Amino acid sequence: MTTGGNTIYDDLGVPPVINATGTKTRIGGTLIREEALEAMNRAAEAFVRISDLQAAASERISEVTGADAGYVTNGASSALTLGAAACIAGDDLELMANLPDTEGVPSEIVMPRTHRNGYDHALRAAGADIVDVGANDYHLGTGSENTQPWQLDAAITEETVAVAYMEKPFTRPPLETVVEIAHDNDVPVIVDAAAELPPTGNLSKYVDQGVDLVAFSGGKAIRGPQSSGILAGREDLIKSVARQHLDMHASEPVYDPPEELVDLEALPGVPLQGLGRSMKVGKEEIAGLIAALDAFVAEDDEAVLAEWHDRSERIAGELESIDVLDVEVANAGKTDAVSTVVVTVDEERSPVDAEMLVSALRAENPRIFVGGDDVPHSQFTINPRCLADSEADYVVDRIAANLEIEAE
Ligand SMILES: *Cc1c(COP(=O)(O)O)cnc(C)c1O
């Protein structure tokens, strides 16, 4: 319970947050697992060569995802940047040294237009230009597809280094179709699956569907260190990532990186500090991510989802007793693995509208964050996954208090 005034944030004079909106980075993402914290503490007790540790992580990620290799990154976002850098530079040290400058070098990443999103800045940060394809007809009801397979095929040219895909249960065209088109053109596919866990089966699903690189957040459902992520995929691309990320600017006569990650024979010399150097991952984060991943895959998905669903139902039941609220539990097991409580405020009768309510909750101490994306439609949401049951009760009480109505 974070309401007792005894968090480290209270000590620092900063209001803590009760998280009723899910794994959002801006309010701390998730609570790290005990197993990961313990691993981080132990990692802090000794030195290790980071490349050795990444090589061990690669093996573990490869076992869990079925990919050839893997890498621990600074969040899924940096996994996307490093993945794009690998697709642009391959094993060319000079290109690596020039990134993100890609003048005169093939560096286009093709994306279905409806997959464009704020996180694709991560791809552009490597120096890529995004070429988006198709329109938005399906969503608008003006056509049956947003992007036709032939349009993707036509957009892939000599300038293309990858096709990027944002994975959601509803994204189209199907991933397998996109993989087929990309591979017919000898171009790799990078998938952003940052938030597509659980189910744990998704760790291997996209690799099974043939993708070349897939990014997951380590600080969302996996509940590893907040600044960790996973990139899994083709060995040659992961090796390129390692070269652009590891601090490798060592004395050449004694340069001896682990061969699983760096193919010394194929290198003309020692790589410089690469694009990834500003996305450092510490020994603590690598060890913590591996421990969290092990614990995550050992979890019973169904039990976790059922626990979240029960909490949603309970919260919905309590909010229903507030006269000016209309409450439903949405997305239970349909498009989204996590159920969400969707609350509509009857603004004709309520003393405050949805926007005022959401803002007032955020201004309290502790701050209460409910989902506010749909306040213009008089709605807010409560996501059960980062809430303890005692906090859920407190959130319901504070909503009632702000509506100046007693909850039952
Ligand atoms: C959260 C998220 C990211 C970024 O992940 P980090 O691990 O926070 O870097 C990227 N893409 C999508 C779709 C996300 O939801």
Automatic annotation (TrEMBL):
A Gene Ontology molecular function term of the record: L-seryl-tRNA(Sec) selenium transferase activity
Keyword match Zinc: no
Keywords from the UniProt entry: Aminotransferase, Pyridoxal phosphate, Transferase
Pfam families tied to this protein: Aminotran_5
Swiss-Prot/TrEMBL cofactor(s): pyridoxal 5'-phosphate
Keyword match Lipid metabolism: no
PANTHER family membership: L-SERYL-TRNA(SEC) SELENIUM TRANSFERASE
The protein's name: Aminotransferase class V-fold PLP-dependent enzyme
